[in-house]
Each structure stands twice: as C-alpha cells, then as structure tokens.
Amino acid sequence: MKQKVSVIGAGVGGLTAALKLQSQGYEVTIFEKNHQVGGKMNRLEVDGYRFDMGPTIVMMPDIYRKPFLESGVDPDDYFTMQRVDPFMTVEIAKQRYPISSDLVRLTQLFEGSSDADMAGFLNYLADIYQKYLNAKDNFIYKSFRTPRDFFNWKTLKQALQLKTFSSSYHDMQKFIPNQQLQYLLSFQTLYIGISPFSGPSIYNIIPMIELLYGVWYIDGGMYQYALALQRRFTELGGTIKLNQPVEAIETNRSQVTGIKVAGQTLASDAVVVNADYPYAVEHLLDQSAQRLERISEKEVNQKMQYSMSCLLLYLGVDCQYEQLGVHTIKMATDFKRNLTEIETGVLPNDPSYYLYNPSAIDASVAPAGASALYVLVPVANLQQQQLSETEVQDYVPKILRRMETDFGLTDLQKWIQVQRVFTPSDFKEFYNSKYGTAFGLKPTLLQSNYFRPHNKARKIQGLYFAGASTHPGAGVPIVVTSGELAAQELEKDLSNE
Ligand SMILES: Cc1cc2nc3c(=O)[nH]c(=O)nc-3n(C[C@H](O)[C@H](O)[C@H](O)COP(=O)(O)OP(=O)(O)OC[C@H]3O[C@@H](n4cnc5c(N)ncnc54)[C@H](O)[C@@H]3O)c2cc1C
After folding, report:
1. Which residues, 6+ apart, have CB-to-CB distance to 388 below 8 Å?
2. What start-end ranges are recorded for coiled-coil regions in this protein (predicted)?
3. Which of 58, 68, 141, 209 is the one with CA 20 to 30 A from 203?
4. How many other C-beta atoms lie within 10 A of the C-beta of residue 95?
C-alpha cells in the first residue's frame, strides 16, 4: 500500500516537496488554509488587472525548472520565461542606474565611475564567486540531519572559509570606492528581509547571482509558477484540499501519526510542514512534541529573530508610463538611516521602495493601455511596530506623491482605477507568518545553515519542514530547494522502513 504523506501549506515549499514525493510514489495530500495555492506567491485579480502579490524577481531559473525535469516533463510545457535586461533601474540621489547582467554594459557602468571601481568590482565578483561555490555545495543544497553533519572538521573548515562574520556592506565596500556603486550592490539583501549593514557577508551572493545568471520574467506573471507546480502535482495524482486549515500535528510519543483538520484526525505516515516554522511550533505542536524538538514558545517569541515586513500597494492604473521598466528601485537619500528605522520600528519618512511594472513586457496583466503596478515599501515586522489603520491610510498618499515626483508619473493618483494595500498584519492573517514578516526567520549568522531550523525534525519521526523559515532560507529558488531537501529526508527515512 502507498505510504500517505500530508503536507501542511501550499506555498512554494509545500508544492515542491509534494510534487517530488508524489512523483516518487507516495500518496500526497496538501492541506492549505487559503482558497488558492502559492502562499506568498499569490495573485490578486480585480477588474481585468492581475497583480502578483509577493515575489516578482526571478533569479536562478534552472532551479525553477528542476522540479519539472525531475518529475519527467519539460518545464517549457508548464511555464515560459524571458530574460529581463537591463533587469533593474536604481535611482540614488536623482542619479539613475540601469543595471544589466551584460558584462560590456557593467564595464561601462563601473569604468564610468573610475578604473579603481571597475578593478574592485572584478575582484569583488571573484571573491564572492569562490564563496558561492563553497556555500552551494556544502551548505545550501545539503540538509543537516545530525550535529555530525555540521560539527566535523571538514564542514567547519568550509564554514570558516566563507569568512562570513562581517556584514555584507562592510565586506563589499572594501572592494569598491564609490558609495553609490556600493549601494547598487548592497540593497539586494532586502530580498531576504535583512539589512546589508547587519546581514552576514555571505548574502553578497544575491547581487552576484543577479549579475552572473541574470533576472528573468515568467510570462503571465510569477503566479504562473504556482499554477504550474499545482498542475504537475495533480497530474501525477496528488490531492490539494483548499480552505482546510490544519489545527494540529498528531504524535504518539516520538512518532507522527497524522494531522487534525476540522476536528478530525487524519492518519499519515509522514507530515511535511510548509506553514511558517515558528507559527507551526507554537500552534501545531503540543508541549510534549515541543519538548522533544527542544523548542519552546518562549524561544519562538523572545529568542528567535525575525526578518522585516513590507507594505504593498497594488495599483491598477489606466495609462502606461514609458519611463518605468519592469523593476525599479528608489533608494532613500540616507539608506543607512532608512534601514535603522525599519529595524527599530519607525515608519520611514524618506523610504526606499521598489516598483514592479510587468506591463512593460506583458500585455496580459492589465486591460489594453493600462498597467498593473506593484509598490513594495520595506517596513518593520509586528514585533517592532504595529501600524494602525490611520497610519497606513496617511502613509499611502505620501508614497503615491513620491512616485509622482521621483519618476515623473504625471497624474498618477488621477489614473488609479484599482488600489489595494497589503500590510504586515495581512501577512500574519493570510499566511500565518509569525510577526507578519515577509521573509520568515531573519537570516542572521545564528539562524543560517546548520543553525536554521532543519528540514527533518530532531526527534519526532516522520516530521519534516520546508519553507522560508527553515534551511536553506527565503526567496523562491531557495524555498524550492527547501521543499526538495525535506522530500529527500523523508524518502531516506521512509524507504528504510
Ligand atoms: C512581498 C514579497 C516579495 C518577495 N519577492 C521575492 C522575489 O522577488 N523573488 C524571490 O525569489 N522571492 C521573493 N520573496 C520571497 C518568497 O516569495 C518566499 O520566500 C516564498 O514564497 C515563501 O514560500 P514558503 O513556501 O516558505 O511559504 P508561504 O508562501 O508562506 O507558504 C506557506 C503556506 O502555508 C499555509 N498555511 C499556514 N498555516 C497553515 C495551516 N495551519 N494549515 C494549512 N495551511 C497553512 C499558508 O496559507 C501558505 O499558503 C518575496 C516575498 C514577499 C512576501
């Protein structure tokens, strides 16, 4: 008889774990609390506008393709991508920088500042690329089952070679003299919810990956990827139960026995938890299971550190602004101060923000002649700051006015036909994200690699974790990897039974 696996959550981590397991012959059912799959890779459709609600920047396209190839199909039959180049325009102090992953254009950008900046840039790339090779094989694509997997001479030596004790910004600025160019290579740690001024230097691999492997766009918008995973999973016979919040993970001593949904216990041979790890510990595991896992609610609430959140605007605008490419970033005049404000719970007066305009390359996301804009303002999570409705209502027009002046979006407020706001409280309510974070546990040194929650539970047999708050971390390709690692761990255990 097929072994039964229940997956809690249809985010990217849950979908990829489920797909891999279903294609290996398990009988997999995903239970998702919301009415659609994708988790934070979500879509909002209003009046002919289609907004991606969460991720928008596609990096490491091969990882997106992997779950399809591994399940025996051609990914091109499920979703298609195109390269975006220049992939981003960054505005710093009224200066606009189109950033390309084309070496000739990059050389013009860095040499245009000085030869020292260009030489420094090449040295920086070589340095971080070496660290990436080390991290990729020894930490990112490897899961940790036992302390011995990390605390051995070989791995500890490799960890030391990452030289990750300084901050990303500090490590990068050694190479590049020009401060504006330093900023161009540092804001990317915000993609995983941590400041470059405090995040470990290994996260300089994020700008490196953008520059060396390019940035891509999934035709129809990012949500097509969630739909593609859903399609492949159900084609293989997998079951998805939407609007089914799981209430508890059932255990008998140190063995998972199933899950509780709508008051009913459903037996499972194994459970993969994709719901946010800290939420799951607090709400789905009982105290004896928490003790076995050596984790307590106190630890979740007081000891663990959480990434930042964001305030998002989805704007259906009845015109097109030719000056906006797909991805644009406006950096605060005082970037460092902006990040300190976020980390200390102050709503930034002069924020950095990100603008996504897929209508620049995709006519399917808005009615003819209109555009579906998305604005992301990084803000504190709910542990640092609780934004009141009035604060949000007052803040939104400020952002709209800034967009008008920063990018010359004439009459933006007049052209808006649809306007929706998504706040840190919505992250908590919609996705059960602890403290309403957008990116899960903060990737500090003590919450990265071996020290991030593992994909296999410590002591409870048959329990696995996949998702942004677990190893290897946040960001779509990394969460895909997390789903695959959790599935691998499960297979190792269940195939030995
Ligand atoms: C605004 C934003 C922008 C981003 N931009 C990018 C980007 O450009 N590029 C990139 O690569 N990454 C980006 N990311 C990060 C990336 O989207 C996430 O890391 C990734 O989608 C997280 O997937 P996940 O599976 O870990 O979790 P989630 O997406 O949170 O999925 C968890 C699922 O579990 C469900 N769930 C929770 N509790 C229960 C329960 N009790 N029962 C049943 N179901 C439950 C939730 O509803 C949810 O569907 C962005 C994230 C955000 C929020």
Report:
1. none
2. none
3. 68
4. 9
Ligand 1: distance of its center to the CA of 439 in Å?
Answer: 8
Q: What separation in angstroms does the CA of 276 have from each of 11, 46, 74?
A: 10, 28, 31
Binding site membership of 272 for ligand 1 (Cβ less than 6 Å) = no
Mean pLDDT of 311-316: 98
Strand-pairing partners, residue 314, are: 374, 420
448-480: per-residue pLDDT in tens? Answer: 888 899 999 999 999 999 999 999 999 999 999
Asked if residue 147 has a cis previous peptide bond (ω within 30° of 0), the answer is no
443 lines ligand 1 (CB under 6 A): no
pLDDT of residue 157 exceeding 80, the answer is no
Residue 453 lies in a domain: yes
What is the total count of domains within the chain? 1
For residue 349, what are the CA distances in angstroms to 397, 410, 437?
12, 22, 21
Residues 431-460 have a mean pLDDT of 94
pLDDT at 342: 95
Pocket test for ligand 1, best of 40, 190, 222 (most atoms within 8 A of CB): 40
* CA pair distance 238, 16, nearest whole angstrom: 12
Specify whether the CB–CB gap between 311 and 392 falls below 8 A: yes
Residue 29: give the domain boundaries.
4-44+63-73+223-304+442-494
Any idea what the CATH number is for the domain that residue 273 is in?
3.50.50.60
The CA–CA distances, whole Å, from 264 to 26, 160, 247, 267, 440 equal 22, 49, 9, 10, 29
Q: Give a yes or no: residue 344 inside a domain.
A: no
Distance from Cα 12 to the centre of ligand 1, integer Å: 7
d(CA 413, CA 406): 14
Within-domain flag for 50: no
The DSSP symbol for 446 reads G
In a domain, 484, yes or no: yes
pLDDT at residue number 16: 98
Token pair 């039964």 is found at: 4
- Split at pLDDT 50, 70, 90, the class of 497 is low
Q: Express each pLDDT in 324-340 by its tens digit.
A: 999 999 999 999 999 99
Cα dihedral 203→205→207→210 (10° resolution) = -140
SS3 443: coil
State in Å, rounded, how far the first CA of the chain is from the last one. Answer: 13
For residue 261, give the ligand 1 atom closest to its CA: 42
